[in-house]
């Protein structure tokens, strides 16, 4: 250790533990309260003192934790997230995108996972997170039952909804599900298919409603026949069970599955019956799960940018926390279509 390091009371570069606030205070020759004020951009610090503290932060590689940064601002630097059923790709990816965005903004995350996602359980989870002193809450609410609770939240708690529809009653961030379904159906119609069949998600989901409505509207606008809907439940099993129903229809040449898992089940059911994809039937999914490009054949699907949804929801919430905007407008992320080998122009079966 150099003598200058000893005199300054510093921690050597080869320290066995990460630097903490008191190490920065010793190196800069100030109190830990002064360090906290500098980290929170308080104007009550002389420029020369601020420069000394920031130099110590850089020399020690100090990373401020949430509690330290909250000493002056009186904020916890922790956000609450209400979510549910993280086994499903969509909600799990939304949660991951929000966590990444929070970390980039130097916030911790406290998560409340729901079993039923009904109104009472959502309000209970929000109350629990509020009691923990979180600075604000993000609610992932793709179910209609959960979205209904958003109108009953306390007005004093900054809150943002994710995937809760356009009438959430809160600032919201979402993927444009209507545009995503339109991209899928238009792609198949433009390939020359006379119509597109649909395997939908389960009732009670806003995503099911929006994708189904957009599928129907796009067909009607194109003057194409609207076939009966085949209901699924997001699982590969339900897609597999829809396969025989579709295979029994001699005029089916194109199918839009409500998510990639159901599309995967369709591919398996069609293969077992000797139906070739895309030669006999084209299939489009929704979500672009990591495995989509490696299915047989690689799946054409609608890609959702969950990281961008996370970033936008964080920006909305920070505007509320910082009192920059009491009612920021909703924001939507436009999905894209990943065209792969599961779609082609129709051929006679």
From TrEMBL:
InterPro entries the UniProt entry points to: HTH_LacI, LacI/GalR-like_sensor, Lambda_DNA-bd_dom_sf, Peripla_BP_I
Gene3D superfamilies in UniProt: 3.40.50.2300, lambda repressor-like DNA-binding domains
Annotated Pfam families: LacI (PF00356), Peripla_BP_3 (PF13377)
Coiled-coil segments: none
UniProt domain HTH lacI-type: residue ranges: 19-73
Keywords, ordered alphabetically: DNA-binding, Transcription, Transcription regulation
Entries under SMART domains matching the protein: HTH_LACI
Name under which the protein is recorded: LacI family transcriptional regulator
